[in-house]
Fold this sequence. Notes:
By secondary structure, the chain is of the alpha/beta class. The chain has 9 helices and 12 strands. The strands form 3 sheets. The chain has a 6-stranded mixed sheet with strand order 6-7-8-3-9-10, sandwiched between helices. Strands 2-1-4-5 form a 4-stranded antiparallel sheet, with helices on one face. β11 and β12 (266-269) form a beta hairpin. It starts with 8 loop residues before the first strand and ends in a 7-residue tail after the last strand. 37% of the residues are buried.
Amino acid sequence: MIPSSTVTPGVELHDLTIGYTRRRALRRGTVTEVASGLSAVARRGELTALVGPNGAGKSTLLRTLCGLQPALRGRVLIDGEDVATVKPADLATRISVVLTERIDPGLFTVRELVALGRTPHLPASARLSPEDLAAVDQALEAVGATRLASRQFSELSDGQRQRSLTARALAQDPSLLVLDEPTSFLDVPSRVELVDVLGRLAREQNLAVVMSTHELELALRVADRMWLLGTDRTLTCDTPAALAESGRIGAAFDRGRMRFDSRTMVFDLKPEDSSV
């Protein structure tokens, strides 16, 4: 983990309320709050894992964080600037997003797909410059996908696809990299490899990386910082060890006979009640 004296805030949430508005014909929209009073920091040079039970609002928080939907109240700051005041074209150069939806880029090669990450930096109808091409090569190398560059995206395994999409996001040269469940379709070795790559990228490229995940045990072992969005719709920001030792992880995830052991940082089954 990078010492706190050497890292700077990349993203800050200040008393944030997230939710959405349902539009109705001839009527005012109905506002639904998902969570409120959220305050947290994701620092440059660190991997921050967003965890929480299903339905807690993780995807809504990420969409608000990226400016894909407006905050109901409060502020999201990126490098000290309110996301709501940043022009969309500028925001596209500062925030990269990798979502859970599977994409079909047709017959694009991996290099062509990654090159799309340079689009926000280009003027209308402009070709890629030597500097842009170098950025594509650097992004491929950073995620270990250089050998995949000439292959068609449709031919890749799920793990290779996720690396390629991460390279496309890196090619944007962002301040913030946001990933929504990036390990969802991966086998266990690929999950570990991808999360390790994300942590390395955060450190080496001084990125703020925020990743939502259901891989709680992996996140606890690898993430520098964790945002825990609980069933009570409150957000707690701390190190994984501190959250585990405080009992907050168990309070959020213990179900039935499943319990979280803060000593081993894994889930196990509660012993059967021998008195029954």
